[in-house]
Predict the 3D structure of the following.
Amino acid sequence: MNEELIYGMHPVLEAIAAGKEIDRIFVQQGLRGAAFQELWGAIKEHSLAFKYVPIEKLNRLTRKNHQGIIAFVSQVEYQLLEEIVPMVYDRGETPLLLALDRVTDVRNAGAIARSIECVGGHALIMGEKNAAPMNGDAVKASAGALLRLPVCREKSLVRALEQLAQDGLQIIGITEKASQTLPEIDFTLPSVLVMGSEEDGLSPEVMRTCHVRAKIPMMGHVASLNVSVAAGMAMYEAQRQRMAQGQV
């Protein structure tokens, strides 16, 4: 696993206080005590993603004295979503963002970030839970794009998409259940493309936020594409339309 681990009550508390980008925290089930209560307060105060796990899982990650706490430090510096769209407009550009709904594979997430950066997209958005960790493997799969592309990690992806809709962006769900195909969608408008999980696509909650749904035309017998391939195709269709209109 190519990512930095911080373990132990005090080291993790110090990392949080120092402003480290904590991707997620594993907490031993049933953990108690005054030291943990202080750490727990910091986790809640900073709205950090955490998961209760059995001690056996922690022991597999490190043989050292972890005290029931292991934090994973992100290799990516997250940015505030509410600052991205105004910044794009200030540059005289039309926002083109991509959101991931429960995409957990680091190689897929990295490859998607690479495609976004290559076509001049403006940000990658993901939720805190059920999201690929932004570790060294993700950065490697992105060919370094994750270090240049703004990445926003939102407590609620649904609320983030709803806010972007209120800001005037069309929310486009990429799903095989759509009736329209990619070329039928007007990507020259301010847009957020939304890709669903590798297993079951867009969740019903996220699907409801999508003003528009689009599918990739397919002629073969295989019913679906890898999510990173599908995201790349959708982003390049957006770029094709924007280039034709002189937006790129």
Q: What stands out?
A: Residues 13 and 59 are 20 Å apart (CA to CA). The chain has nine helices and eleven strands. The mean pLDDT is 92.
